[in-house]
Write a structure and sequence with these properties.
465 residues; FAD/NAD(P)-binding domain; 2 domains; eight-stranded mixed sheet; binds flavin-adenine dinucleotide
Length: 465
């Protein structure tokens, strides 16, 4: 290991790897050291659903995602699509006729903010011009979104949806890819351009006269560095304390379940399917009585939140599907997720054994054939990780108040889709290159602006699944 370095990046998740890639490969900087106590991409970045979209209700987020997806597409072209980028889209669904005006209204926002045109269909005839997505690849699919406000039109194009469906919004610059393969591709490129990976824990970041000077590792070594990048994911707050900073971020545990869909309930060519209605789960009378008797389970009889989502995973001959549903109130759950005195997120995170069954039951509102699994559920594989978030769910990609220190973090539930844009922005900060229009919205300094504090008080829809 070199005793001195141009930039030391703490964390080899997707954020740290993207930062290293952009500095070394796209800006030609030598002397980049990437330090992680774990193998690359193994804390949060391998737990994700691996989906992406530019469909956000916030202008800076649309700008960041458009840039990120541009880079993703460039990398896919350059690598022969080694990370299987597809463009199947996200399909947002509702069965509630009363929601249609709001659904229509909300669909206009991302479009007006730069996410592409909105095409609205009120009859099967109007929907005849709709262009379905290809199953693989990302070329030749329209931008923007298609809004279907007619049941027959929806069922013509998505026959597996229930006959209660009333509106569907298909966001098109969206889909999924292999996060591991993207991350390894960027890491290999970065290493070929001189980036050194060091397996160690950062234990101290030292400063002198308000400037970063040296970084100490748990093997006792010290490296002097011009720049230090905090890319520590859910541990970014802890690493921030090494710089005597209290970063305005928190963590939130999110789980996901994979299972074998032997009955083919989720079509292999489906987009990401998202149920936007709250729902009450379908229990038998006997189950209802059983659940009602216990304080720990009686809440399962209440109305549950919107947002159950699923997608097929793997190639056409695979039968794996992923299910996700944030049905819990995080304020209640947080006590089990963080260490009581250090407030550090607990790693590995605690898993909720009820999650697979509840998520599966939640999917039945959207795809009724999921009920065929209620009696005998396929064996689930459950995992999860932490979303690291700011209050308003915008990321922090920013210089820090200590000169030479930077943060690329708070990437919440969108860290894979934004990683390329985030690394690109961070590298622009470090190299003093021209900053994009959305840079200020992701800078730590935004919290010093009294006007921004007022905006935060009224902040509502963060657009996060
Ligand atoms: C269930 C779930 C579903 C998700 N779905 C999606 C999705 O569909 N699309 C999407 O874009 N995003 C999704 N995400 C979010 C995405 O996974 C994260 O935003 C992203 O992985 C964060 O990457 P990171 O590099 O910031 O953090 P991490 O991947 O956690 O990497 C941080 C690294 O820092 C290292 N580190 C920490 N402290 C130190 C230290 N002191 N010394 C050395 N190393 C240190 C850790 O070991 C770790 O390797 C999902 C997340 C979850 C949990």
């Amino acid at each position: 290991m070199k005793p001195s370095t141009h930039t030391l990046i703490c964390g080899a998740g997707i954020a740290g790897i993207s930062a290293a890639y952009h500095l070394a490969v796209r800006h030609g900087i030598r002397g980049i050291t990437l330090v992680d106590e774990r193998p690359p991409l193994t804390l949060t970045s391998d737990k994700s659903t691996e989906c992406y979209r530019n469909w956000w209700p916030d202008a800076p987020m649309v700008g960041l995602m458009n840039r990120s997806i541009d880079i993703l597409e460039e990398l896919a072209e350059a690598s022969g699509n080694s990370f299987h980028l597809n463009r199947r889209g996200y399909l947002y669904l509702t069965a509630d006729p009363e929601k249609i005006p709001a659904f229509e209204q909300e669909a206009q926002t991302p479009s007006q903010l730069g996410a592409g045109p909105l095409r609205t269909y009120r009859s099967p005839g109007e929907a005849a011009v709709y262009r379905p997505s290809t199953t693989e690849g990302f070329r030749g699919v329209p931008d923007g979104a298609d809004l279907f406000l007619d049941r027959a039109a929806i069922r013509e194009h998505f026959p597996y949806l229930p006959d209660t469906i009333n509106a569907a919004l298909h966001a098109r610059r969206a889909g999924w890819f292999s996060a591991q393969q993207l991350g390894m591709y960027m890491l290999e490129q970065a290493r070929a351009h001189g980036v050194e990976f060091v397996r160690a824990r950062v234990t101290e970041v030292n400063q002198s006269h308000g400037r970063v000077t040296t970084v100490r590792l748990n093997d006792g070594s010290t490296i002097s560095t011009q720049n230090f990048v905090n890319a520590a994911g859910p541990l970014a707050k802890e690493v921030g304390r090494m710089l005597e900073l209290d970063l305005p971020i928190h963590t939130e545990l999110h789980l996901k379940v994979a299972l074998r869909d032997r009955l083919g309930v989720v079509p292999r060519q489906a987009p990401m399917l998202i149920w936007t209605d709250p729902q009450t789960l379908n229990w038998s009378a006997e189950e209802r009585q059983f659940l009602a008797e216990d304080n720990h389970t009686c809440w399962l009889l209440n109305e549950m939140p919107a947002g159950a989502h699923t997608r097929p995973e793997g190639t056409a001959d695979s039968d794996i599907i992923l299910l996700l549903w944030e049905y819990k109130n995080h304020q209640i759950e947080r006590a089990s997720e963080v260490h009581p005195t250090s407030n550090r997120p607990i790693i590995p995170p605690p898993l909720d054994e009820m999650y697979p069954e509840i998520a599966l039951r939640g999917m039945a509102a959207m795809l009724p054939r999921f009920r065929d699994y209620f009696e005998q559920m396929p064996r689930p594989v459950l995992d999860g990780g932490y979303y690291t978030k700011t209050r308003e769910n915008r990321p922090l990609i920013s210089p820090l108040p200590v000169e030479g220190a930077y943060l690329i973090g708070a990437l919440s539930g969108y860290g894979l889709m934004s990683a390329c844009g985030a690394g690109d922005l961070l590298a622009a900060h470090i190299t003093g290159s021209e900053l994009p229009s959305y840079a200020a919205a992701f800078a730590l300094e935004r919290y010093n602006d009294p006007e921004y504090q007022k905006i935060l008080d009224d902040w509502q829809d963060a657009g996060q699944l």
